[in-house]
Amino acid sequence: MTEILEAEPSVAAELFGDRIEVARSFARNLADQGEERGLIGPLELPRLWSRHILNCAIVAPLLRPGLVGDVGSGAGLPGLVLAIARPDVSFVLIEPMERRVAWLTEQVAALGLENTTVTRARAEDVRLPQRLDQVTARAVSAFRTLIPLTAPLLRPGGELVLMKGAGAQGEIEAAAKAIRKYHLDNVEVITLGEGVLPDVTRVIRATVD
């Protein structure tokens, strides 16, 4: 099915730098196996780079060296993409579904991602040996639902970096109660990729006091 895979956009090499070959390997693997393994839909190959891989990669500069958890990693979007783009950051991919955990584990090995581990668990049940510096998630659930799942995983001063759609600001307003309860501060929407990607990426970023 790789014949209908979207041609690699020229900006991909800029976003991944010397990690572009690893990103290409991931794109091929996801194109070859993604639909068959229930990771992506049949209509996603023609926009796999622009809508999914680069949509995640543009978030990489927001991460800091430390330990980052990706909640509901699924196909590895954004967790595997960010781990490829940021070898200086350690990642733990948190995913409850066994078949997705198998895929993630295979890709960590195949891509040589020594900065990445995979944990099978729901976010609310996961037990990690240390608190996280940052947490990411993409297309998991509404912000007000994500807050109680993700904020407790962070150390004091840790940061949520959650990928969201066009309604991100509205999600913040709807989450006012959870924002207060879990002591979130500096809650903001960041728009990335304007003039670079066909579709911008919106991120809700917040600090946990």
Short description:
By secondary structure, this protein is an alpha/beta fold. Helices cover 34% and strands 24% of the residues.
Would you give an account of this structure?
The chain is of the alpha/beta class. The protein contains 8 helices and 7 strands, in the order αααβαβαββαβααββ. The chain has helices at residues 11-16, 20-33, 48-57, 79-85, 98-110, 143-150, 168-174, 176-181; strands at 67-71, 90-95, 116-120, 132-138, 154-164, 184-192, 201-208. The chain has a 7-stranded mixed beta sheet, with helices on both faces. It is globular, with a radius of gyration of 16 Å.
**Overall mean pLDDT:** 96
Largest sheet: 7 strands, mixed
What is the count of β-strands? 7
Q: State the shape.
A: globular
Poorly predicted ranges: none
Strand content: 15-25%
